[in-house]
Structures are given as C-alpha cells and as structure tokens.
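User: Modeling request: complex.
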Amino acid sequence: MRHLNFSGEEILETIDMVRTEQLDVRTITVGISLLDCVSDSCEGLCGNVYDKVERVARDLRRVSADISEEFGLPIINNRIAVTPVALIAGRSGPLELLRIAETLDRAAHAVNVDFIGGFSAQVEKGMTQIDANLFAAIPEALAATQRVCASVNVGSTRAGLNMDAIAAMGRIVKQTAALTANANSIGCAKLVVFCNAVEDNPFMAGAFHGASEPECTVNVGVSGPGVVLRAIKAAGDVDFGTLASIIRRTAFKITRAGELVGRTAAARLGLPFGIVDLSLAPTPAEGDSVARILEEIGLDSVGTHGSTAALALLNDAVKKGGAMASSYVGGLSGAFIPLSEDAGMIEAAERGAITIDKLEAMTAVCSVGLDMIAIPGDTPAETIAAIIADEAAIGMINKKTTAVRLIPAVGKRVGDWVDFGGLLGRAPVIAVNTRSSSRLIARGGRIPSPLQALIN
Amino acid sequence: MPNQAPQPSGPQAGRAILTIIGSDRVGIIAGIANVLADANVNILDISQSVIREFFTMIMMVDLAGAAVSFHELSERLARKGAELSVRVEIQREEIFKAMHRI
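Assistant: Request completed. Predicted assembly structure:
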C-alpha cells in the first residue's frame, strides 16, 4: 500500500454520501460586477451587460460538468449573481428596467446557467428614484423572464426597517403573483425580501454580487441534509454533546468537498475564489430534508414543540463544523427551512403540524426566513407586508439575515396544492392570520435601528 | 490546508481512485486493467477486500500519461463495469484528501 492513502471505509463513505445520501454541490455561482457596464443609453447598457456576462461565464457550464465528473460529486445548478441592477441602471424607467431584465435572461440562456440573480435594490434607509422604478418593474420583469431572480433589502440592524418599502413589497408580491397566475404564481418564487442581505450569497433567489465584491468571484453553495440525517440516525439515542459533535464532523467533510469544488472551478475559470456557503439546503427528494433531521433529533413531526431548539442545535453545529473546514465561509451559511422544497416540511404542513407562526419562530435561530410558503391568493397586500415586517424585525434585532419568499397563489385557498416542479417543489397552501394589519402598514416611515447595547 | 493543496492543472494530470464494487468473479481485474492499459493509465496500487459485505477493489491510478480525456476514460470504465456486472467509480484523489484528511 505504497500509494493508497485512504482506507476502503473512507472511500466508500464518500461514494455512499453521493449515491445514497444525495450529497451534492447545490450551486456554483459566479459573481460578476456590472459597475463598468454603465452607459448613457439603455441600448449601450444592455449591450455591455450581455457581453460581460457572456464573456465571464461562457465556460462555467463545461467546467462545472468536468469537475462534477472528475470528483464524482453532482453539481446541481450553475448560477450567476450580478451587481444590483439599481446601482447600474442610472435614469432607467420601468420599461428600460424591463429590457435590462430581459437582457439578463438572454445572457443566462446564452451561457446556459439555471438562474441569474441581481435584479435588486437595497433600500433599507430610503429609496432613490431608480430604486422606485426597479420596484415598479419587478412584477413584469419576473413574468417576462424565466431565469432572472429579484431581491430587495428592506431593513438592516444599522439602518432599521424601511416600512414604506415593506408596504410596497406587499403590493409587489401580490402583483407578481397575479402576473404569473397561470403558472401557480411562480414569479413569487423568484423574489426575495431581505433584512441584512449578504453580498456573497450563492443561493437563489436572493443572490446578488454586492458593491463591496471584486470584479468577479466564484462562490459555492454546498448541500447535504441527507448525509447529516444518515449520520445521526446511525448514532441512535446519544446525548446532545455527542449529537452536536456528529453534525460538526459531517458538516466539516461536506464543506471541504465544497471548498475543493469551488477552488478548482475558480482556478479553471481563471477567476478568484470567493466563499463556501455551508448551508444545509433541502430538495424535495426523499431523504434530502432538513425536517427529517429535526424529526430524527426527537420530534414526532417538525413544527411541534422543540422544533426551534432542535433547529438551533443543528444550525450552530453545521456552522462550527463548516467554519473549521474552510478559510472563507460566507453567504447565508446555516440550515434552510423552505416549505415547498423539503419533503418533511411538506408532510408536516399537510397534516397541519406546522404553521406559519412556528416557521417564523424557527427562522429566529437559522438561516434564512419564511421561504417558499404558499399562502391563500386572497391574502391582502397589507398582511403580506406585515409578515415581511415581522420577519425583518427578527433579523434586525438578532443581527442576522432574514428573508421572506411567499407565494400568494392566485385562486388558491388553504389546503389547495401548488406545484412549481423541480427544485422548487410543491406545497399545500397554509393559513395566515386573517386579522388585519392595515393600520400598522399605513403608518409609513421607518422603524428606527435598535440599540446595540442593552441587548436582552 | 486547502489553499495550499495542489490544483489539478488539467484534465490529464494527477491521480485518481478507482473503486469497483460488486461480487467477486473471474476476470474483473483483467477487464478493468485492460481498459486502463488501452488508455495508457498506470496502476500505482491495488487492494481488495470485503467491506460492508461487498467485494470492493480499490485502485490508485496515475492519469499523467493518459491518452484519453477523463470523460472518455470514465465512460469506458462504466461500459466495462456494466459488462462485468460491477459498479465502477473513478474520482480524482483530491476529493478524498479534502474529506478525510486535515
């Protein structure tokens, strides 16, 4: 055994992680700055944007496929994140912004990436004219394009919450749902409302290439709930210290694989490596579920009492293991609890074991927020805005990223099903509180930023 | 550390681990070795054992002189594996180093 430095057990463990436990790299996301694409005409801007995206990301698909084959590790999505469009669109009106969105979509098709994120604005303190124009363009842009994702940041711990922007987003989510009503309001699945948005997140729909980022960068999002589930199942009824240790060790291995993929992709694309986002991101595939992990920790069903505690343990242990494994951890990094993308969550919602209130509580201890939740189509815009405000308040006070991605599915009522297909999954429509929040939303203005001392 | 780890410089460089899983029978090593020889891939090391009730053969191979692309090699091995009723996986060594060595 002169050359073989690994035991058979180690080799088979890696192979099993991929073959039976759905270990994958969820995404390689190339971040591209569009700051140098500005132009005094919309045609000029669109031309520059298309050319730059095509030039930088032209080889992404091929490189990603090669790496996937050579390491024996599936890479599920290839994505692009660009500079928030509000920063480069100058004086564009809503119609011109729509053309920019269509340009991004064409570029995404040209280089064959799954999504392109960055139809975005950051308005936590206030809105400029271009921000307002971008807001107005979001519903049309998401209806007219397939791969473009939009996000807005409406609050931060430093700036507080922009309640005018939050009120506007309640209406925009509704309009987006209406414009894509014939496709289960899928436009809303491509729209995220953030508090404390991060600038290097590789996950959609909230990826954008922040203004503080370099020219281009390669970020990687790993996945692997199935691997964690298998590891804690094998351990049986151990105490929490042991459980945390098992999760940490598993997260370490997953993250190392992700970092290798990210660095190799960066080297082959000739771009700098950015970060590994070590999130546990579920898919609708059986076994690839964060909910099942929480249930294996000891819950009859996710959503029951104890769910928040189990999730807190999981989220923290994943971060600790991952942080040891990579020099540059970033993005959202934690456990995701989207409803429609997680088989265990879907079941819990179907049997009424999980409610939007419990989901909100759980988002206080994990990344990221109320994600991929179908709510009744007749939910008022003010109620959606109030849900966004609640979630943003959790992020603002706890100094963490929170996000809202709700789908008020047009024509659907509680108990009806909405099917998005693919990674976006399917979900039963769940209830929201029907008492009105309209006076709260009508006040307008900002909720001031919180004290950074006296933090109990 | 991953930052110092050598990056595979091209599709033909570096070493890979080939794993064959299935039931033991005559001709498995010969069949796989033939595919490797045709592709001018050198076998550096080989071991076989029963792991988790499966016959498992593990080879370390050197891709430096390979006459075909990784993709082509991987396809040829998969075809031969199907012929021999065994599962053949080939993966670059780095993935195991990343996951199992600090």
